[in-house]
Amino acid sequence: MNDNTECTDEQLMISLCDGDDSALEKIVKRYQNDVFRFCLHYLGEMETAREISQETFLRVFTARDRFDATRPFRPWMLCIARNMCLNIIKRNKVAPMDSLEGLEEASSAASPAWYPATEHPLENVLADERRRALLRLVYELPEDARELLMMRYFEQLSAREIAEVLETTEGAVRTRTHRALNQLRERCVGKLDFLS
Known about the structure:
By secondary structure, the protein is mainly α. Helix content is 68%, strand content 0%. The protein has helices at 9-17, 22-43, 46-62, 73-92, 103-110, 121-138, 143-154, 159-166, 170-188. Helix 2 (22-43) packs across helix 4 and helix 8 packs across helix 9 (170-188).
């Protein structure tokens, strides 16, 4: 594979299936932070999220022959990560996505589009406070609403990608996301005004 050209994820998976193990290294470099952050949103514990994100790439490798190169890679990989996170949650019988420790750090690193950084230090402090307050409100939502908002706004997945991860339709994702946003709006009334 020519390192001078940027390969798509799907091309890397084809190369991996053809025996090019360096393709996996490129995939890991490309997605290790995204997968870690994705797992952290589910698990709320940094060390477990690190382990599951590493395990995700092992599963990508072992399941490489089942990858359909006509479909996008990222949702397929995130579906693997999600299923592993849900298995951990079921096995440990812990409440998913409840811990905000570490999640605030991960969300700040993700720099959600709704609170872009500014040049003025005070504005940055207020933006950080808004982000933390909003994150707390998101994590008070029911699990399915949190999951959708996390995928859409923190991971910036499209409705189509979310549908692939959740193995549902785009229409269902749009409807459920609209409901989740309405739930979040209801919780925001009066709670974020002091940060305006």
